[in-house]
Design a protein that fits this description.
The protein has 312 residues and is an alpha/beta fold. It contains ten helices and seven strands. It has a seven-stranded mixed sheet with strand order 3-2-1-4-6-5-7, sandwiched between helices. It binds uridine-5'-diphosphate and magnesium ion. Uridine-5'-diphosphate binds next to β1 and α3.
């Protein structure tokens, strides 16, 4: 099979019939399956999917709402096509872009092609501007040059989605997950974007706060997840050094004053003393965090995260 179209959805009943027809019209000449993952909808979306009556359509229904990442993960596990395409169910993403994205994977050798909503049809202040800032930060942290990391419309070589694990709210950073798994040929394609026709957006402004925190976590995990002591130990040593230098200053200063018979403040009367104390205590705490981190890393079932690409 050429393609698996993976569609996470949460209360999108009105959009689904139109979406299905649009996909069918756009994918002439491909063999494909459509996987609808109903993420706990309460508006009858599941009934609409059941009624489609097409062997190419498969439905997976969650018992309650778990979030887009869980829905994508489930869809990725079930997908059987050579290329896996994800898109939103709300008719904002155009399936007409899919053949071009597929061509980039097949002919230009991309592992992953992300859509780029170049002319985005959402609210300027709540979505478009924060999204620009968010994508700039994401580019700096991940080193992946994408304008629109979180675009719902993406195409992947099947190998990619079978070798990454989307969890929590990490669907925003799938290209980063892919890069960390060694799939480095990541491209983008400007795609048409429509205004939301039915229903409402499922994500509020908190997406930017959560998105930023998740980015920090991913950055930390990808660099130090398997060796936390390298992070905590290094910052611990730095703290110790700072504390040590301050202590030496205090002691030397006192000795010099004493030797010259000058008046000198008590050590505990100086701000520097407390700063030195704080630095040393922080240093100890950082080391402790490092040791605990190492113990957690060692007992994790995922302590060996490498993946073999080929053997003979
Ligand atoms: N979605 C989902 N589970 C959720 C929230 C959203 O499956 O908990 C789906 C939603 O139905 C849509 C896609 O994820 O198909 C993108 O959501 P939305 O259109 O609300 O996001 P926006 O376009 O506003 O970024
Ligand atoms: Mg949308």
């Amino acid at each position: 099979m050429d393609l698996s179209i993976v569609i996470p959805l949460y209360n999108e009943a009105e959009s689904l019939p139109e979406l299905k027809a649009w996909i069918d019209a756009s994918l002439k000449g491909f063999t494909y399956e459509i996987l609808f993952i109903d993420d706990g909808s309460t508006d009858g979306s599941w009934k609409v999917i059941q009624k489609m009556d097409d062997p190419a359509v498969h439905g997976i229904r969650f018992r309650r709402n778990y979030g887009k990442s869980a829905a994508l993960f489930e869809g990725f596990a079930a997908a059987q096509g050579d290329i896996v395409v994800t898109m939103d169910a709300d008719l904002q993403d155009s399936p007409e872009e899919i053949p071009k994205m597929v061509r980039m994977i097949r002919e230009d050798g991309y592992d992953l092609v992300s859509g780029w909503k170049k002319h985005r049809k959402d609210n300027t202040f709540t979505k478009n501007l924060p999204s620009k800032l968010y994508n700039w930060t994401a580019r700096k942290v991940t080193g992946i040059k994408l304008h629109d990391m979180n675009c719902g419309l993406k195409a992947y070589r099947a190998e990619v989605v079978k070798n990454i694990e989307v969890y929590g709210e990490m669907h925003r950073y799938i290209p980063y997950l892919a890069k960390n798994a060694g799939f480095t040929k990541i491209g983008e394609k400007p795609v048409h974007h429509q205004k939301r026709k039915f229903g409402t957006s499922k994500f509020g402004m908190d997406r930017f706060v959560h998105g930023f925190l998740d980015l920090m976590s991913l950055w930390f995990l990808s660099r130090f997840g398997g060796k936390p002591m390298h992070f905590f130990g290094a910052s611990g040593i730095l703290m110790f050094l700072v504390g040590f230098v301050m202590t030496v200053c205090i002691v030397v200063n006192k000795l010099v004053h004493q030797a010259n018979g000058l008046k000198y403040r008590a050590v505990t009367d100086q701000p520097l003393f407390y700063l030195a104390l704080l630095a040393v205590v922080l240093g100890v705490m950082l080391f402790l965090a490092g040791f605990i981190g190492e113990m957690i890393a060692r007992s994790s079932t995922e302590r060996n995260t490498y993946q073999v690409k080929e053997r003979f």
